[in-house]
Amino acid sequence: MKILRYLLFPFAFLYGLGVRLRHFLYDHHLLKSKSYPLPIICVGNLTVGGTGKTPMIEYLVRLIGEEHVAILSRGYKRKTRGFSLANNLSSALSLGDEPYQFHRKFPQSKIAVCESRATGIETLLAHYTPKVILLDDAMQHRGVQAGLTLLLTSYPTLYTKDFLLPVGNLRDVTQRSKAAQVIIVTKCPSLSKEEQQKILKELNPFPYQKVFFTGIHYSEMVYTNNDNRIPLTNFIQTPFTLVTGIANPLPLVHFLKGENASFEHLQYNDHHHFSAKEIQFLQEKRKILTTEKDFVRLSEYLPEIFYLPIETYFLSETAQEDFNTIIKSYISNNKRS
């Protein structure tokens, strides 16, 4: 593996040059970036997937109130193009799995997808008056200036210890972290104050940046269509098949093993579109558990499939209160003009 990494370093160097050139053009106003007269919060990362953006956006929607929020995403791997607003006819194919998950969970929010964040915002504002727009996975979309940027980095793989693609998982240079006012270390286990201080020293944030530590909480219930649910402890009493198509399924696998569950694990790529042959294969399984993101892609074909929801939580109540205050103060001080 080390030999392969050395062979890929020239490609990572060239990739880094391209990324830095693009940032240079924006930083020196040779490429234009637009701002808008309402609170816009960007939730993003520097790596390829797996940092917990989806549960963080869901946390923000609950904090702000779903009736006040519009969420704008690219709609990764959707089968449509251009601007699309979620409605009763939408699906994971037309929106992408994560936006469709938001639409199912927050029916009072406006959920839209568009390759161009600027076009998406302008189309939303032409027809609706959201109090806040949340930009899903938009740190690399510099055509829009967010008023508040949340940078997520996963505890097991901090961006400061990663490498640019294709050597590592960084899709952006670490210097881009300067754009964030808030850095959130996600998927943390229980951390002592000393351990948190070590991470702070590694991240070396600027004085204007606040750093928070969060973990992932798995629900005590598993759900299927129509919000039917059963306790997880009952579900895992008999063997099942775990199906995942996410960037990093290991935390879920470890959690289930810690619960003494007996299962086979079928692992697919992140945002995987299941073929008819794969669907047929899965239909032969008697009992399936999956993630909520995979559920929105599979439930149409597997009516008895179950999913295990997750939520983000802060390692301390004081930190959570401080984070909530940052979000609410930003919104209050930047109301739509």
CATH topology label of the largest domain: Rossmann fold
SSE order: HEHEEHHEHEEEHEEEHEHEHEHEEH
Give the strand order of the largest sheet, numbering strands 1, 2, ... along the chain. Answer: 3-4-2-5-1-6-7-8-15
Low-confidence stretches: none
Q: Just give the CATH class of the largest domain.
A: Alpha Beta
- Over all CA atoms, what is the radius of gyration? 20 Å
Q: Could you tell me how far the N terminus lies from the C terminus, measured between alpha carbons in angstroms?
A: 54 Å
Shape verdict: globular
Summarize, please.
The chain has helices spanning 2-27, 53-64, 92-95, 97-105, 117-127, 193-203, 232-235, 250-258, 276-283, 292-298, 317-333; strands at residues 40-44, 69-73, 84-85, 110-113, 132-136, 148-154, 182-186, 210-218, 221-223, 229-231, 240-244, 263-267, 288-290, 306-307, 310-314. It has 337 residues and is an alpha/beta fold.
Task: Describe the protein's topology.
Elements: H1 2-27, E1 40-44, H2 53-64, E2 69-73, E3 84-85, H3 92-95, H4 97-105, E4 110-113, H5 117-127, E5 132-136, E6 148-154, E7 182-186, H6 193-203, E8 210-218, E9 221-223, E10 229-231, H7 232-235, E11 240-244, H8 250-258, E12 263-267, H9 276-283, E13 288-290, H10 292-298, E14 306-307, E15 310-314, H11 317-333
Parallel strand pairs: 1-5, 1-6, 2-4, 2-5, 6-7, 7-8, 11-12, 11-13, 13-14
Antiparallel strand pairs: 3-4, 8-15, 9-10
Helix pairs in contact: 4-10
